[in-house]
Amino acid sequence: QYLRAPVSTICIGMAASMGAVLQAAGAKGKRYALPNARIMIHQGSGGFRGNTPDVFIQVKELEELNNRLNAIMARHTGQSLEKVAKDTERDFFMSPEEAKAYGIIDEVYAEQNSSLIAEAKDKGGLAGEGAAADAGEEIEPLPKPESDAG
Questions:
Q1: 39: how many CB neighbours lie within 10 A of its CB?
Q2: Residues involved in catalysis
Q3: Helix or strand or coil: residue 28?
Q4: Phi and psi dihedrals of 40, rounded to 5?
Q5: Other C-beta atoms within 10 Å of 69: how many?
């Protein structure tokens, strides 16, 4: 989300868990999946060890992480936060067509004997014309964050 260049995402086999979040976070109009791909969303998970207060701290952190990820998915898919939270209560698998309807991808790429990478580049979604990654082009550094330390 902090890159100036539009980022294409391509699900070739499976985009599951954080992979589905990354797939959805691609540039609108440049999020693809192949016809036999699968996309799966769910809650974050973790295992905890330690004394009781530390385990409660970890559970609270996991709940916060789930809330943040649900908000990210809602923002990128156009789904309501409530729907994303409900859908991620358990593993939720989708076909490319279902993922498109959900808002995770924009297009199911089904053309035979063609290059999705080349097509995405032609659309400006991969390093190509107008992108800072063109060979020989000077890449401008990002500004340094301001610091409160004096």
A1: 24
A2: 17, 42
A3: coil
A4: -135, 130
A5: 21
Task: Identify the pLDDT of residue 110.
Answer: 85
Tokens 């539009």 appear where?
6
Domain of residue 73 covers 9-122
CB atoms within 10 A of CB 133: 10
Spatial separation of the C-alpha atoms in residues 124 and 1, rounded to whole Å: 17
Q: Is residue 3 part of a domain?
A: no
Please name the residue that has the structure tokens 């063109």.
134
CA distances from 79 to 37, 110, 139, 140 (A): 21, 25, 36, 35
Number of domains in the chain: 1
- The pLDDT tens digits of the residues spanning 100-137 come to 999 999 999 988 777 766 666 666 655 444 444 444 44
CATH of the domain at 106: 3.90.226.10
